[in-house]
Amino acid sequence: MSSPPERRALITGASSGMGKEIALAFADIGIHVALVSRSLEALEAVAESARKAGVEAKAYALDLSKTDQVHAQIDTISAAFGPFNILVNNAGMGYTESLANTPLEDWQKIIDLNLTSVFECIKGVLPGMREKGGGTIVNIVSIGGKQVFPNWGAYCVSKFGLMALSKALAIEERPYGIRVTALCPGSVNTGLWDTETVDADFDRSLMLSPSTVAQSVVHTVQLPPEATIDELILMPNIGTF
């Protein structure tokens, strides 16, 4: 009886929050993980925890906001650790400001990180997935990719764009056996709410936990090859977006 194929995943934004929990959840089910974010020290701590579950785990410091470098760097990571049959695009930033008061520089930063870097990561792993005859790409979109909120305009634009990217990619790559899921969580209790670019006063105890989102990602990647989740909206059940 043949053994199941080895699974290797690339996870962006893996040093904390949802990315960290996804990495550890993958490790628990035997998926080897390559971890990407800007903070090598924080990534190394996550990688060490993942290795305790018996999988390979390696940290790669990469600033995804430098979009002109992303494709080449993902190629390098794929050659060293891959090829990948799972990609989780989790890295992103929050931003609150009215559209009228959003500077062009800020607008470009949001689009670069939340949308263009995802596009470049995808291009970095697609050749390997096609060569292997399949794979799963999970884009962490946000409920902000399904509905808009006042003073979250630029953020929502980036996430609506990511939703369109996910749906177009799913259609184009289906003949190659590659599945694409757009995961749209509502508010998740992560460090996003502590960043300088976000000004929001929500009760974080009512939000989804990162581990709950991770469970949904695990379910998505473990579906049999003939099934896919095109879009999954995951909302808190206690009264907050």
From TrEMBL:
SUPFAM superfamilies: NAD(P)-binding Rossmann-fold domains
EC number in record: 1.1.1.-
Keyword Oxidoreductase assigned: yes
The UniProt record lists the keyword Nucleotide-binding: no
One Gene Ontology term of the molecular function aspect: oxidoreductase activity
Recorded superkingdom: Bacteria
Pfam families (UniProt xref): adh_short
A GO cellular-component term linked to this record: membrane
InterPro entries noted in UniProt: NAD(P)-bd_dom_sf, Sc_DH/Rdtase_CS, SDR_fam
UniProtKB keywords: Oxidoreductase
Record-stated family: Belongs to the short-chain dehydrogenases/reductases (SDR) family.
Entry protein name: Short chain dehydrogenase
Organism in which the protein naturally occurs: Limnospira indica PCC 8005
